[in-house]
Amino acid sequence: MLTEIEYKKLAWHSRRGMLELDLLLVPFVERRLRGLTIADQLLYERLLAEEDQDLFAWLLLREEAPNDDLKRIIGIIRDRP
After folding, report:
1. Would you say 14 and 28 are in contact if contact means Cβ atoms under 8 Å apart?
2. DSSP-assigned letter for residue 50
3. 70/77 Cα distance (integer angstroms)
4. What is the pLDDT tens value at each position of the chain, 81 positions in all?
5. Which residues contact 38 (CB under 8 A, 6 or more apart)?
6. What's residue 30's pLDDT?
7. Scanning 14, 34, 46, 70, which has its CA 20 to 30 A from the CA of 54?
8. Domains annotated on the chain, with CATH
9. CA 58 – CA 35 distance, rounded (Å)
C-alpha cells in the first residue's frame, strides 16, 4: 500500500511535460493507482523510470514494450488487461 508521500512522488513523476503522456498518466494516477496491487504499483514506478520517448511510443501503441511486465502496466493504464 502506498503511503501519502509515495503517492505524491509518483503523481509528481507522472507529469512528464509531454501533453500526450500527461493526458494518459495523470488521470490514471488520480483515478486508479491507489487501487492497484502493490506489485502493479511497483510496475508503474518502474515504468516511470523509462525515457519519455519510449513511454510515448509504448503508450500510444506505436511500439511494443520490451517485456511482459511493462506490457502489463501499459495495458492497465490504457484500461485493458
Report:
1. yes
2. S
3. 11
4. 899 999 999 999 999 999 999 999 999 999 999 999 999 999 999 999 999 999 999 999 999 999 999 999 999 999 864
5. 1
6. 96
7. 34
8. 4-77 (1.10.150.250)
9. 23
C-alpha grid cell, residue 39: 506489485
Give the length of the chain.
81
Question: Can you list the alpha helix ranges (DSSP code H) found in 1-81?
Answer: 4-14, 19-32, 38-48, 52-59, 68-77
Q: Which of 8, 18, 80 is nearest to 45 (CA)?
A: 8
**Amino acid making up residue 5:** I
CA 75, CA 60: separation in Å to the nearest integer?
A: 11
